[in-house]
């Protein structure tokens, strides 16, 4: 029996896609996610300012992909 934990979270679906300027149907490039994940807060990566919220969303996206 699997626990459907992700349905119980209060995440905004598609928020990362919208923040990065991709359509919801597009797959986000893993290289971009890795660059943002390793960047410091306040820096710019490919035209996007890295904020704490962006880092949390990217970290979640990378973890869910595994």
Overall pLDDT: 90
Q: Rough shape?
A: globular
N- to C-terminal separation?
A: 20 Å
Share in β-strands: 5-15%
Helical segment count? 4
The low-confidence runs, each spanning 5 or more residues with pLDDT under 50, are none
Order of helices and strands: HHHEEH
Q: If strands are numbered along the chain, what order do they take across the biggest sheet?
A: 1-2
Relative helix content: 40-55%
Largest sheet: 2 strands, antiparallel
Radius of gyration: 13 Å
The assigned structural class equals mainly alpha
The number of strands is 2
Written overview of the protein:
This protein is mostly helical. The chain has a domain at 40-66. It has four helices and two strands; from the N terminus they run H-H-H-E-E-H. It has helices spanning 5-8, 15-20, 30-38, 52-65, and strands spanning 44-45, 48-49. A two-stranded antiparallel sheet has the order 1-2. A hairpin with a 2-residue loop joins strand 1 and strand 2. The radius of gyration is 13 Å and the shape is globular. 9% of the residues are buried.
Topology (elements, then pairings):
Layout: H1 5-8, H2 15-20, H3 30-38, E1 44-45, E2 48-49, H4 52-65
Antiparallel strand pairs: 1-2
Helix pairs in contact: 3-4
